[in-house]
Each structure stands twice: as structure tokens, then as C-alpha cells.
Amino acid sequence: MASTGFLTVRISTSDAELPIQDATVTVTQDTPGGVDLLAVRISDRSGVVPNIAIATPALSESLSPGGPVPYAVVDVTVDHPGYDRALIENVQLFAGVQSQQDIALVPQSRTPEAFNMTDVVNITAQDL
User: Fold this and answer.
1) Of 17, 18, 24, 101, which is most buried by a Cβ count within 10 Å?
2) Whole-angstrom Cα distance, residue 63 to residue 67?
3) Could you tell me if 54 and 38 are in contact, meaning their C-beta atoms sit under 8 angstroms apart?
4) pTM
């Protein structure tokens, strides 16, 4: 039976760790049929998008090794004018757990060839 985990995203500047308001946070999930859009949210003045509910496998699936993956896997993309896009791949969410993903955005370069950059971070799967 499916359960629910929760994701909070905290966005800041890479250099001063100042919160970034009005960043667009998009949460997607790869499925056999393609990519599902799970949520689109805007960060508040603290740079936070709280409590995005994500369907996860039941907690009981994480009690013994060798079974199915006991967590949901999502990708989180953050966009804000003046900063490179950030893509965090394979964020892992467990049933009943509030997870926080901190994302530091890098200011865009002033050189035209550097525009539309995406900073990609790939989280390694847990060996459970």
C-alpha cells in the first residue's frame, strides 16, 4: 500500500547563503510512461517551499533487505532569473519522513556563452 513522504526545499545563494524568494521549484518523477509532474511551487521570503507531499512505498517495505526500493525517487529543478538552473536528480523520500533538500543557486555569469546553464547534482541510490 502506498504511503506519503514530505519534501521541503530550501533555496539560497551559493556565495552568501542568503534566501532566494520567488524561485520556481518543480518536482518530477520518472515513470514507465514518461515523466510525471508532481508539483510546481514558489519559494517564500525565507527561500523555502514546505511540505510537498509525495507518494512513497509503504514503510514496511524498508524492513528487510532484497525487496523493492523502499523509497520514492524524484527530481527537483529550481529556476530563478539571474541564477543558473539547478537540477537535483534522484532525491529519495521515505514514507512518513519530512526530508529537506537544500539547494544553493549560482549567480549567472555576465558572459553570453554561459547563459542557460544548469547545475546538475545526482544523488546516489541508497544500498538498502
Assistant:
1) 101
2) 9
3) yes
4) 0.83
The pLDDT, as a whole number, for residue 125 is 72
Provide CB contacts within 8 A for 38, sequence distance 6+: 27, 28, 29, 52, 54, 74
Do 54 and 6 contact (CB within 8 A), yes or no? yes
The span from the CA of 39 to the CA of 52, in Å, is 7
Mean pLDDT of 6-22: 91
DSSP lists the bridge partners of residue 103 as 11
- pLDDT, one tens digit per residue, over 41-51 is 999 999 999 99
Dihedral sign for Cα atoms in the order 116, 22, 37, 50: positive
DSSP, collapsed to helix, strand or coil, labels residue 60 as helix
Residue pair 90/30 in contact (Cβ under 8 Å)? The answer is: no
**CB atoms closer than 10 angstroms to residue 50:** 15
Report d(CA 118, CA 50) in Å as an integer: 23
